[in-house]
Amino acid sequence: MTMTGQEALALLEHEDILRLGQAANEMRNRIHGKEIVTFIIDRNINYSNICESECKFCAFYRRKGDKGAYLLPTETILDKVRETVACGGTQVMIQGGLHPDLELSYYTDLLRSIKKIANITIHSFTPTEIVYWSKKSGYSVKEVLLRLQEAGLDSLPGGGAEILVDEIRRRVSPKKIMTDEWLGVMETAHSIGMQSTATMVIGLGETLAQRIEHMEKVKALQEKTGGFRAFITWTYQPGNTELGGEKTSAWDYLRTLATTRLYLDNIKHIQGSWVTTGQNIGQITLGFGANDLGSIMLEENVVRAAGTAYEMSVNKMVRMIEDAGKTAAQRNTEYDILRVFDRKDGR
């Protein structure tokens, strides 16, 4: 029997953290088995930091004309794609902001250019950008997605979700899309065969009940469409941001992660984060329900702008997984396993 939101909230609020982790780990083992933990080799290409959204929790964005504002030349972006392929990468995430001067055609041309030079999955853009381009172009959200898909967009990341509760969104990102718009873009993407991930950012001043409300909305949409491949919980990084505040604790993160595994029983993959919490906590997530550790990230600039930077390589990722008693495997965007690392291979 599926868990209710009230039961999930009770776990998040009151359950002993070790028992919570054990229950999440047992569920992970039932779904995926005990051994394999996956990761992907990809690159976040931040083509521009110019953004009209001006979210209070973001240290990366700049206004047009600000010192340090930039837009990468297309050839520079393509060079980064080539480097990714040369390093064994199978995916790129094109991430920027709501740039006031770029039309939808810029993005479709960019996607086509990438596909011409590389056989690589483009897992890029967020519902925030899709809605922005829809309003700017006059096309419907579905038409924007279809044009991007035709040009080469393979899937959508879950960015821009933060907390899917409008009370929180109005406080931390008042210019950004609200909850129903984020969910609507994802539902539309799923309807045209474009799968996605879902994310949640904790530590923005939300209550535990609001975290569960966020999960409930994602779970309900998944029940309807089945289009979410994975769920990823991130921790807010307050450095250099207008919002400020303190980082949430590792315990809070692990409790929340374990609860997502137990409650989101219709989403197959739960990703543990090392990018915002560090490698040690990333490793511990493998005992709290996570079956995937995301990307080694050949490049990442958004979290780094908030003063948090952890370096990763394939060897470090494999060692981290093996030191947790697991077997490391490289996957692609669809979670197909491309390579299993043999612990006896002498690395």
Kindly provide the radius of gyration, computed on alpha-carbon positions and rounded to a whole number of angstroms: 19 Å
Percent helix? 40-55%
Alpha-carbon distance between the termini? 44 Å
Shape: globular
Beta-strand portion reads 5-15%
Highest-level CATH class: Alpha Beta
Q: Biggest β-sheet: count, sense, barrel?
A: 4 strands, mixed
Q: Class by helix and strand content?
A: alpha/beta
CATH topology call: TIM Barrel
Strand order of the largest sheet: 8-1-9-10
Number of alpha- plus pi-helical segments: 13
Q: State the total count of DSSP E strands.
A: 10
Name the helix and strand elements from N-terminus to C-terminus, one letter apiece: HHEEHEHEHHHHEHEHEHEHHEE
Describe, in plain words, how this protein is organized in 3D.
With 347 residues, the protein is α/β, with parallel strands linked by helices. The protein has a single domain, classed as Aldolase class I (TIM Barrel). It is 42% helix and 14% strand. Strands 8-1-9-10 form a 4-stranded mixed beta sheet. Helix 1 packs antiparallel against helix 9 (208-225) and helix 5 packs across helix 6. It starts with a helix and ends in a 7-residue tail after the last strand. The model is unreliable at 300-310 (pLDDT under 50).
